[in-house]
Amino acid sequence: RDLVRDGATVIGPRPEQSPSLVGYPQCDEEVRSIGNEVWGDCDGQRVKQHAYGKGRVIWGMPMNDVLKQIKLAPDFEYRSPGRARLAYIHRRVDNAEVYFVSNQQYRPVAADCYFRVSGRQPELWHADTGEMEPAPVWSKASGRTVVSLRLEPAESVFVVFRKPAPSRYVTRVARTGAGQAVQSPERIEVRLARYEAPDGSRGADVTGRVRALVAQGETDIPASNEVFGDPVPLVQKRLRIEWTLNGKPRSETVDEGGTISLGGGAASVAPLEWAMRSDTKGYTLIPWRAGTFNIRTAAGKSVSVSVKEGPAEITIKGPWTVHFKPEWGGPAQTTFSELISWPEHTDEGIRFYSGSATYVKEFEVPAAACAANREVVLDLGNVRNFAEVTLNGKGLGVLWKAPFRVTVTGLLKPGRNSLSVRVTNLWPNRLIGDEYKPAEVEWNGNALRAWPDWVWSGKPRPKTGRYTFTTWRLWTKDDPLQESGLLGPVVIRSAQKMNLRLE
What we know:
Elements: H1 2-5, E1 9-11, H2 26-39, E2 49-52, E3 55-58, H3 63-69, E4 76-79, E5 86-93, E6 96-103, E7 109-115, E8 120-125, E9 132-134, E10 138-141, E11 144-151, E12 156-164, E13 170-176, E14 188-196, E15 203-205, H4 207-215, E16 220-222, H5 225-228, E17 238-245, E18 248-255, E19 259-261, E20 274-279, E21 282-287, E22 291-297, E23 302-307, E24 312-315, E25 320-323, E26 334-336, H6 348-351, E27 356-365, E28 374-379, E29 382-384, E30 386-391, E31 394-399, E32 405-407, E33 415-424, H7 428-434, E34 443-444, E35 447-448, H8 453-457, E36 485-488, E37 491-496, E38 498-500
Parallel strand pairs: 1-3
Antiparallel strand pairs: 2-3, 4-7, 5-6, 6-12, 7-11, 8-9, 8-12, 10-11, 13-22, 14-15, 14-17, 16-19, 17-18, 20-21, 21-38, 22-23, 24-37, 25-26, 25-27, 27-33, 28-32, 28-37, 29-36, 30-31, 30-33, 34-35
């Protein structure tokens, strides 16, 4: 009552009784009396709001309608031409407004994000690289700030508002004309999907539901009751899917709350379009595709830049020298005439290999591709699963997520260059390969029945040809091998930097 009388808006039904037994039953009568006083004739059906003192109460009206009526814009919302799914958190740190925006899908998205902040410069803070940069494109709209974001698969970014907004900034960049990006769709065929109890004894066949989601363009399938209902109540369930991706069989199982990504590879990564940078001298456009770029500033100036040719591209083809670790079953050195997944190799030591292998290659670069006015990127294409890159003896760090790209401006040299890529995959292939070897333990289902004698005695392990030892049988020899290695294509892209005068 006092809150509403002093100006608060309270949303909810009229209270009927006290939450306490103190003074019962008079306490209930007191609460009803105050409720009648504040809510008046507001019954949530015929009358949905009532003024009281400086404030009011609202009942029976959807929250979105209430917010619109009091003209309170959402703290965050986004608009995307695709089926984007973003999540966010907002925190105030000292005098800064900090938003964390996360792409909830394993595919690239572009979205205009609306933040309930005005009069401040949006900055993008990238936790994976430590880079902090002014947002290249943003605008103002009805007391909010609109930031155009492009997020790669599962990428996230902090959008930070801490400085006064500058007077000059770019509000729009759009590319039209020839050279529009066309991506070959991934061919996904769902063979079986079950949402079931952990042991598979009970559950539901949800193959049709998953196929319908794929037909709608959804390739990230959540293990959720909201999607599949609850076929086994009061049990933590699992989602199991068997499918083919571009003709290759795959299967995966995740616990309830997890997600299975049916797509994958380079096709899930958006091609580079453009980059915009600014400093005290002006703006620099880096066009990664041909076409006409239309650029608009906050001052209302519009500039069109025609780019007739896309970036120079150098595809680094085989043969590649590849070094494996013999202690994990691979050859010390071999040659790949072309980039393939390790399970596709005829050598058993490579097919079942898990661990790190280093690809080494020398290649030629024309002087024009690494001139001073060029921006150069090394794109490894598809990598399974991590890559540590060294170019001309310079370490460029570890790439652990898509897109597997790294800027190499100033590191390439005209003529011969040396590239080393250390790729590390996951454990399943080695575990599956070991299942073809003679057994050295006894299992009780998937659990270890007893520790082998050589563990207790400290004696050397029997030579069965196995490389791994686990206390739980995670994989069998019938499970499909996972894609591994540097799959490419490996491409050097060099684009001309274009200085713009937008004042």
